[in-house]
Write a structure and sequence with these properties.
351 residues; two-stranded antiparallel ribbon; 4 strands; 70% helix; single chain
Length: 351
């Protein structure tokens, strides 16, 4: 005779009901972290526009002037934005590149020499890209095969590239009258300067490379755990070299954009760009410890950093105060990352 506590004949003995998993909303899932961060960055951008409307209503509340102002801001920030895309890849892999500003200067000087300009726009474009990629290759080889710390290797390249640019130019500004190069900043497509379009194309290509290719997955794996990536069969040294070549190539593209905007090449071009690119990537959520970062986040970081600089300029804030505030922004961004990583470690494992 069966009782309430008897076991059903079809139910295996000793098998218990699996633990129930509490349904989580999309907002609570770990995969939504990037989306949450990006929404927060968009909120910061809107807040900056509100501050601009309060402090300079004559610019930010006039649609025509606001559009013109933002196009100017984006055009000036486009070169830093391109460098930030390359920097994002390097930082995600656990590295750092302090030489990007100097590489931009070297590429801009090399492509505007009289000899290079005599061969036309194609030679200028090739020279800028080749110089940037070659310098990135040297960085990558020193780090991957010479086993130098990225900070030291790229610091040495920063000093050397800036000195070489000064030597080639003789500390003089080299003017270019090439119509194609100048048109990159002067001409527009649907009212948008080509420099901004180039920046957006680089962002799209960077996003695809990071999120839809094995190159991107290997980059994240190396940044997350280099030894585990090596044991998984990834050629860590080759991948590291390619990452720094990619960063150098971005510097070459940025050099062409700067030459187009200033119609000249100079050994002072790109001064401070390395700090701006690192700051933009950090603000966008790229972890300095490696293994985490997004191209969209870096794009938003560039927009936020450029918008903050724009507010400084339109409100006539002294340059020394601007630098102090920019330094504080970088520190705050790193602290936010530190607290976020700590909270992730303390988060209980889901059942």
């Amino acid at each position: 005779m069966s009782t309430a506590n008897s076991i059903s004949p079809t139910e295996p003995v000793g098998v218990h009901e699996p633990p129930r998993v509490t349904a989580q909303s999309w907002w609570q899932r770990d995969g939504a972290d990037n989306a949450k961060r990006n929404l927060a960055l968009i909120g910061v951008l809107l807040l900056l526009l509100i501050i601009g409307a309060i402090t300079r209503p004559d610019i930010f509340l006039d649609i025509e002037r606001l559009w013109s102002n933002e196009l100017t801001v984006l055009s000036l920030a486009s070169s830093i934005g391109v460098i930030t895309v390359g920097m994002t890849f390097v930082i995600i892999s656990g590295g750092i590149d302090l030489s990007v500003g100097a590489l931009l200067a070297l590429a801009s000087v090399w492509c505007t020499t009289v000899a290079t300009q005599s061969y036309g726009a194609g030679a200028m474009v090739f020279a800028a890209l080749a110089v940037g990629a070659a310098a990135g290759l040297v960085n990558g080889v020193l780090i991957a095969y010479g086993r130098l710390v990225p900070f030291i290797a790229t610091l040495a390249m920063m000093v050397s590239a800036r000195g070489l640019a000064q030597n080639i130019s003789g500390s003089h500004t080299q003017i270019t009258n090439n119509k194609f190069i100048i048109s990159l900043a002067g001409d527009k497509f649907l009212g948008v300067p080509y420099t901004i379009i180039i920046f957006l194309v680089v962002v799209v290509l960077g996003w695809v490379l990071l999120n839809r290719t094995t190159f991107g997955r290997r980059t994240i794996a190396i940044g997350g755990n280099t030894e585990a990536a090596r044991l998984a069969g990834i050629n860590v040294r080759l991948q590291t070299v390619l990452l720094y070549v990619l960063g150098g190539l971005c510097c070459g593209i940025a050099a062409l954009m700067v030459v187009s905007q200033t119609t000249s090449g100079s050994n002072t071009n790109g001064d401070g760009y390395e700090l701006s690119a690192i700051a933009a990537a950090i603000i966008g959520g790229t972890a300095l410890t490696g293994g985490r970062g997004t191209i969209i986040g870096s794009l938003l970081g560039v927009l936020i950093f450029s918008q903050i600089t724009n507010l400084f300029v339109v409100n006539n804030l002294p340059l020394d105060i601007q630098r102090v505030i920019n330094g504080g922004i970088i520190v705050i961004a790193v602290l936010v990352q530190q607290f976020r990583v700590t909270s992730l470690w303390r988060r209980p494992a889901s059942s």
